[in-house]
Amino acid sequence: MASHALMCRLLPNVSVSKVSSVFALGMNNVPLFRGSASHGVFSMSSAGVSFPVPCFLGGAAATYGSAASARPLHALLSGASTFSSSAASSASPGDEAAAAVYEVAIRTGDRRGAGTPCGAEIELFGMDARDSSGPHVVGTEKGFVTGGCDAFDVHSPTDLGDSPARLRLRRLEAGSSDLGAGWYVYDVLVVRRGGRRGMRYHIDGWLGESDSGGVKGEDERLVTGVTVEDVKSAMDATRLTRNSLSDSEINALAKYPVLLYAGAAVLPHPEKLETGGAGAKAAISRTFGNGGEDSFFIARGGMNGGATALGVADGVFAWRDQGIDAGEYSRGLMRAALQAAESADTHPRPDALQLMSCAAKGVSDLKLQGSSTCCIVSVCNRNGILKSANLGDSGFIVLRPSLDGTVFEVKNRSVHMEHEFGRPYQLGHHDHGDKPEDAHFEQAALRPGDVLVLGSDGLYDNLSDEDIADLITKTAGTTANKTNSTAAWSHALASSCARVLASHAFEASVNKTADTPYSRAATEFFDMVYSGGKRDDITVVVALAANPPKMNE
């Protein structure tokens, strides 16, 4: 795992972004320490991770003379006098000509590459009128940062009412190269100055091409807003990803009983094999395995021994500098999750988030030290409902055969959770570790013929989702659609797919000229052209969804 926030402890007056620039790409595998050295992009609550709240949602706001004036997040959170309540009493030149002043908060997602160096155009529409001075250009100086919330004032000569009905948001072009310019916008909140009731425009998607996931969206969105009685409360609402389905949607789709046949492959970082140490070499069984600081589990149960839960964890190697084996921490997480899944005598069995909580408690009870990302997926054999909890840059994708059955296509994808590039969310023994409730929770519906791929960042840093889909198509071919095949054949195919993915991820990791998800994300974050893969432990778990031979649970 890569992280460089340890430098923040050595340079307490330098922001994480500055540390990133100073140490460039040389700082790999460093533990995550959040706290005073962080620039405060996230706040913590019992409901999970929430976006920072701009000052206008908690009190008076500053005003500026331009039609759309920016209030950077770092300034909003720093308590600078420019943004004090006294500043709000000073009228800006734009106020005199404005029929209304609207305060706008644009929230950028927290997945890898979500930020953009580009600015944006924003335009507001009322029920019967539009802002005649728009569109307004914002964010041109610094762009929008991953996980950030950027606030702007829009001075409109047209009174659009307290709640503008629609909003148009357009990402500006990057120039000669669009690499790194894709922008993942979560939502936009608008409130008339001095009010509480406002509008929320839900986007939750890419504007332009994603930097590392192979997803491309339109550069412009026209969105109809939803009224929120208290805009500040809306900032703290629990977030689901675009691909996550609501309970009602899940119940409508959950009509396919499935049986999962799973296999795994682990390739430790080559240098760890040379230096040795506990867990350095790969060790795999039908239900548990590890290599380097990576670990996985496969909980078998349900109908005729089909897998009901799977997980991957990636420990932070750099704890070794403090005499701590983070591999022991990740192995402890997966063992605890496995034990919780297999020993549960309740029905329904624990879901992914409950298993993650059990795993975190397990390593805490054992007083294990270190930190680790964690991705756990649980599947109900009776109806195919998949529930996942993901914390960090490990993750999963769901592949489904195309309508003509010739190729596999990406159906669902977990969120790549980072505080910023190289600083993934992670469970840990230290005070600044993330918690299970900070995990991204998703649910989807599987059907026979689907392929579920879990992996550590060693997989997803080096292979795109499209690479993975192509390799599964070539390896499994149309045979993956033989959903009534024997258990032995299905297990063998799953294991073969896992080995192929791990092998290709390794080849990309040592290729210095490869175009990889990691190199694309690094190019954006460091504002320099970077190529090649990332050498790391690689763990892959592949599960094939098949028709169950009979219902006996």
Jot down its keywords.
553 residues, alpha+beta, Lipoxygenase-1, Phosphatase 2c, domain 1, 2 domains, 8-stranded antiparallel beta sheet, 28 strands, globular, manganese
The portion of residues assigned to helices is 10-25%
Q: Identify the CATH class of the largest domain.
A: Alpha Beta
Secondary-structure class: alpha+beta
Q: What is the percentage of strand-forming residues?
A: 25-35%
Pfam family, one: SpoIIE
Catalytic activity: O-phospho-L-seryl-[protein] + H2O = L-seryl-[protein] + phosphate; O-phospho-L-threonyl-[protein] + H2O = L-threonyl-[protein] + phosphate
Enzyme class: hydrolase
Protein name: Protein phosphatase
At a glance:
23% of the residues lie in helices and 29% in strands. The protein is an alpha+beta fold. The protein folds into two domains: 48-235, PLAT/LH2 domain (Lipoxygenase-1), CATH 2.60.60; 250-546, PPM-type phosphatase domain (Phosphatase 2c, domain 1), CATH 3.60.40.10.
Structural account:
The protein is 23% helix and 29% strand. The protein is an alpha+beta fold. It has 2 domains: 48-235, PLAT/LH2 domain (Lipoxygenase-1), CATH 2.60.60; 250-546, Phosphatase 2c, domain 1, CATH 3.60.40. The strands form 6 sheets. Strands 15, 16, 17, 18, 19, 20, 25 and 26 form an 8-stranded antiparallel sheet that branches. The longest helix is centred in the last third of the chain and has 23 residues, at 487-509.
What is the topological layout?
Layout: H1 6-10, H2 16-23, E1 43-45, E2 48-50, E3 68-71, H3 73-78, H4 85-88, H5 93-97, E4 100-108, E5 120-125, E6 136-138, E7 149-156, E8 166-171, E9 183-192, E10 198-209, E11 216-217, E12 220-224, E13 226-228, H6 231-235, H7 247-253, E14 259-267, H8 270-275, E15 283-284, E16 288-291, E17 294-300, E18 307-315, H9 326-343, H10 352-365, E19 371-379, E20 385-391, E21 395-401, E22 408-413, E23 418-420, E24 423-424, E25 427-428, E26 440-445, E27 451-455, H11 457-460, H12 465-476, H13 487-509, H14 517-526, E28 538-546
Antiparallel strand pairs: 1-2, 3-7, 4-7, 4-9, 5-6, 5-8, 8-12, 9-10, 10-11, 10-13, 14-28, 15-16, 16-17, 17-18, 18-19, 19-20, 19-25, 20-26, 21-22, 21-27, 23-24, 27-28
Helix pairs in contact: 9-10, 12-13
